[in-house]
Protein: Carboxypeptidase Q
Organism: Roseiterribacter gracilis
Amino acid sequence: MRTLLTAAICAATLSSSALAVAAEDPAAVARDFQTRASNGGLAFEIVRSLTTEVGARPLGSPGDAAAVAWGERKLKELGFVNVRREEVKVPSAWQRISDRAELVGVTRQTLRVAALGDSPSTPDKGIEAEVVRFPTLAALEASAPGSLTGKIAFVDVHTRRTKNGTGYGEAVGMRTRAAPLAKERGAIAAVIRSVGTDSHRFPHTGTASWRADFPTIPVAALSNPDADQLSRALERGPAKLFLDLRSTSAPATAYNVVGEIPGDGSSDEIVLLGAHLDSWDLGTGAIDDGAGIGITVSAAKAIAERGKTKRTIRVVMFAGEEIGIKGATAYAEAHKDELVKHVAAMEADFGSGPVYRVTPDASFPAALQTSLRTGLAALKVDAGDGKAEVGPDLGPINRAGVPTIGLALDGTDYFDVHHTEDDTLDKVDATAIAQSSAAYATAAWLAATHPESLKRGSK
Amino acid sequence: MRTLLTAAICAATLSSSALAVAAEDPAAVARDFQTRASNGGLAFEIVRSLTTEVGARPLGSPGDAAAVAWGERKLKELGFVNVRREEVKVPSAWQRISDRAELVGVTRQTLRVAALGDSPSTPDKGIEAEVVRFPTLAALEASAPGSLTGKIAFVDVHTRRTKNGTGYGEAVGMRTRAAPLAKERGAIAAVIRSVGTDSHRFPHTGTASWRADFPTIPVAALSNPDADQLSRALERGPAKLFLDLRSTSAPATAYNVVGEIPGDGSSDEIVLLGAHLDSWDLGTGAIDDGAGIGITVSAAKAIAERGKTKRTIRVVMFAGEEIGIKGATAYAEAHKDELVKHVAAMEADFGSGPVYRVTPDASFPAALQTSLRTGLAALKVDAGDGKAEVGPDLGPINRAGVPTIGLALDGTDYFDVHHTEDDTLDKVDATAIAQSSAAYATAAWLAATHPESLKRGSK
């Protein structure tokens, strides 16, 4: 009886799966996922749970440990299998203690400032020195050796608001390069205008050592209104800044959290959905990257509810993205022998959305590329014709050959709150994140059910 | 020769003044002031100067002293006469030292909080206690004696966004009443949701003792996103809050700053333009009330540039409005014998504008009421038919009989930044403040040139 029943269920499952592959219109699939995503709003609920129960979770903090436990618990609750944590060793995890800045003039005006990640502390009594402003990083680079001796360099580049993050890309260089360039010219500290598009008194932090050496002089970001204030003060004459930045660093162990929606057993191929679990310390990491966790986990869950797919869906909550893509690098190394089975990967790390463009890797079979474009068009997603985007956490596996499906999230407002105290749940758009969840579910489902083998070299 | 020249000048002045009264169309006057206000943008430039050179200026702080010196200097620079400081003694000026709050759960999450003015400090080790939430002040009031023993009360009232500040009026009661009501029921501290319409992590401070006793338990405001977070945590079960609030109080001497554009000598009557010079400590007091200083000073300056008026225009930069209308109360007392000469008063303390409604006091001659409505209509200002608004700093002289010209500033966005760190120059709308300056200039000019006597009892 039991055997017969199981066989019947298997037959039903297989035939419904086979039917799905043969008959389902990608646009209908997308609409179905949109309905599922809107009902209950699981993506938003996941962000609510993470940000309320855990809050900030920089690598090495108690919040980071709590987030890993949360991630395992949440995936198990939602019915994921093979839920596990995978170790990520980090030689140096930086933690903020306190930041303080004052504009020293007739009075001492408090300026809102945040040390950049990996900034050394100032001496115990702080640093008070004259400020020299540079409107561009090139202007700092062009300044003479010794010209900043004993001074504080101020790199004052504005960030353009764009949908796809190009404005951020243009400005973010000062975050890593201001300190070393200033140091070479004799400066004892550096400050930058926040890499952010808002006009609120929230400094935008971010690592100063991403793809670069550790900074050897203290470096911090001023909020945009405070950078305006310092600029105005400098228009009136020389100005001094007082900086008191305290931080600490220690080796730390973090964890990628992994869970799966298993395939129907007919393929050992894996479709990966990734987002990062760590956040900066200032906010609760709602848009960066709670939203990505919500989108990817809810998308995988929706696929599970729809029925078995040929391939396994694997969700990875990456550790330590903010401090140099630590978890994704460890994942690529730990799974290097298995990467050939990773036939498609998607990442969500640009806020709550909506998704406005899909760009499949050019290596995918033409039929899959077509179904991705057709399916996502039903969610008002247009078709990109360039190179598929690779988010930061997909970099290591993509360089090892794993192709991506680029799903572009609308980032017009993303850099208003990115890396600030203001990155909180109220900034997540419940309607947009439901569409994003549906778009990721659709793309992952189409890849996971595609009838041809997707393994590299299989054609 | 000298006598003849003087006589000629006097005659010319008198006749031009008389002509102005007889012939000038109020709408043409308003348009002229709009042109003057737009050219050069003096109102905005005054706010820029105050917020950049001085910054925050809570009563009793070095910034407050610097602001008084700034005010005297600025009025003299602009050609005002009888520029002076008038002493205001304050028995207790509260100064913030530091604020810290944490939501105590699986982790300790930092919440953004600001002590309310006159809040006592917490004990040296802070306070950590269970939180009890009240959705309304009435709910707190209805709670049983002793029901909050050893706990922290949380009054969680939202502020409605309105143009005229009624939403603020509905919510602000919790700022003064939360602490005494909670104390009566045994609470050891109280927190409130910020009285503010934004969704950013800026707590809105404000005095807790306005028209009430000094609070005797620590009381602070959470930013709106942090109040959301605490509410969400409480939905999941009991939650504790850690509060560490430090402040100090000391007697202080502050100063009203006064300057005049003298009349033509034909009247001893005074038209008063007022705004307050002090600010809260968190921002740079750009909208509250740098904007009012900019509007009133620039309006008086525009009148001076236009030519002599019959009456004197007096600008008063009031001290200590934020901590209980200290300067305005002192002004009414010091000038009580002269108040009969104060024939009309206007106040700007609601941001940069624009002005959308004029409501002259019902006691003004009908012809003046008509010219005010006609003139301001040219600036798209409609005519109010209720009681003339009396701003906080006009209260004391209004109660002593001085009639006001109510000029309503559009406050739709005002409570987004009011009493927060985010009250900075970038929040001042340069176009709106120019219109406001023109509206105040028009109203003051019409009152200052009105041919009939405006003295009370003169009709």
Notes: The interface with chain B takes residues 48, 51-56, 61-63, 66, 103, 105-110, 112, 199-202, 224-225, 228-229, 232-233, 236, 283-284, 421-422, 424-427 of chain A (CB under 8 Å). Chain A is about 35% helix and 25% strand. Residues 1-21 of chain A have pLDDT under 50 and may be disordered.
